[in-house]
Amino acid sequence: MSYHIIGDQDTVLGYRFAGVTGDVVETEEEARAAFRAALADRSLMILLLTEAVEDMLGAEVTAHRMAAIPPYVTIVQDIWGPRGNRRSLQELIGEAVGVKIARNDGDEA
Amino acid sequence: MSIINVPPTKTKQLEMKRDLATAMEGYTLLEQKREILVMELMHLLDRVKLVQREVDERRARAYATLRRAVSYNGYHLMRRVAEGIEYEHHVEAHVRIAAGVRIPSLETHHGSFSSQYGLIGTDSLVDQTMADYLALLEALGHLAELESAVWLLARELKKTQRHVNALEHIFIPNYRDTLRFIGQALESKELESFNTMKTVKKRLERANADGGDDDGDGTAQGADA
Fold first, then answer.
1. pLDDT > 90: what percent of chain B?
2. Which of A52, A70, B25, B47 has a Cα-to-Cα distance from B2 of 20 to 30 A?
3. A46 interface with B at CB cutoff 8 Å
4. Could you tell me if residue A105 is inside a domain?
5. Which tens digit of pLDDT belongs to each residue from B42-67?
6. Which domain holds residue A32?
7. Range of the domain at B89
8. Strand B85-98, strand B101-115: pairing
């Protein structure tokens, strides 16, 4: 058991088909409890969180990311579609580097 | 431009010169580290774009298949099938160190599959769902690796940037100013003492020139007293 997902019922159902164990959470307290339990589980390597859950947990997720220990967190979209206004990885890099590199990738040009 | 509050002495000057040299050395090193981090991040940026696109595509496909499968088979059947599915996934983590940052690299293996329930009574959409989600999971494994790497590198870069800025714009100029101030203070002190010496010398010379007189005067004064 290396993958684990915390999210709403329907999103979790999908990942069950790939053999990912999951916690179904509805409220912030449930999410927090599930997240902490997942962090304590040594057998987990990759922890998937839905966007909704990430929003519920907030700074706790960031704090765990900085710790650089497993499980490594990845955010997945809810099955109901994106929640919008998310900072993508590319933006994170751009912000840290402090320069925007304009490049023609062909498909974006 | 501000001056650190220290006594303008020779010892302090030497001490500060040494500190400034260390600071300059640290600054060069940090600047190099910053460049390495920027390069690492730019390098990752290309991979992030690629993997992100892959994840988006696979996710869209998997989610669509799941919706179709649910609408054909009904939620409860899907639930029951899902309960029985078990995969033995293996993820191995190795840690790579770049510019003092521990970056995890993950290796994922999808192990054996076993299902408690027979697949009789389910249609090909269920199989398709499993296949699509497995593909998605693989891409997510790559994303997880990149995501943690980017977060860690970005944080380190911000920290380094702050250190470099502090050294470049505050620490080093302050030390330079203070050293200049100490230099000036020492110089004026030296000049002052040089002048004093000169005056003393002049007085001594004058005293020596009319030495006898002086002596005579002294005894005369003493006699007078």
1. 15
2. B25
3. yes
4. no
5. 888 888 889 989 988 998 888 888 88
6. 3-81
7. 10-176
8. antiparallel
